[in-house]
Specification:
alpha+beta; STM4215-like; five-stranded mixed beta sheet; three-stranded antiparallel beta sheet; 4 helices; elongated
Length: 173
């Protein structure tokens, strides 16, 4: 079984958090993509770049990730794109606890179950893994900046980008 790395684990949790946010859903519905379809409906948001840097210590494994969420609008004026990136910021900024719960839920939903003593993981096929690094704990999630600019490539609409930094640490269960 392949276990997701820091970047994919973070992306899954961020996606779940954003899709669960009512304010953002009122703006883009469920149109949050890794790669949008060819005939995409506007407005929508997508994942931009995700960069993972190693942040290990002698006692733990970790990563500092920088990522962007991009918002695309084709209406006149910057209001719609601004509202989308502001909703993204509100949904994620300083929401480490929510993100951690979603990351754990993803582990359970993809075949992991933690027993009461938190030292044994049962896989769907019945195999057991003991004392393994499986809990990725978000230490910090910060929106560093966001901006909206005219999309001159198509001559209409605006693109907004929210820039985030997340610090993750893997702990022993």
């Amino acid at each position: 079984m392949i276990i997701d790395g820091y970047a994919l684990s973070l992306q899954k949790a961020v996606r779940a958090a954003l899709l669960a946010d009512a304010d953002l859903a009122s703006l883009i519905s469920t149109r949050l993509y890794d790669e949008p379809p060819e005939n995409v409906t506007y407005p929508y948001a997508r994942f931009g770049s995700i960069v993972a840097d190693t942040d290990d210590t002698d006692g733990s494994l970790g990563s500092v990730l920088s990522f962007t969420i991009e918002a695309y609008s084709r209406v006149t004026g910057r209001v719609e794109a601004s509202r989308i990136v502001e909703a993204v910021r509100a949904a994620l900024h300083r929401q480490e606890e929510t993100l951690g719960s979603l990351m754990l839920a993803d582990r359970v939903n993809t075949g992991y179950m933690l027993q009461e003593n938190n030292s044994v993981i049962l896989l769907e096929n019945g195999d057991k893994i003991v004392n393994t690094d499986i809990w990725t704990n978000p230490i910090e999630l910060i929106c560093n900046d966001y901006f909206v600019e005219r999309d001159d490539a198509v001559g209409r609409g605006y693109t907004g980008r929210a820039l985030f930094t997340a610090m993750l640490e893997t702990s022993k269960t």
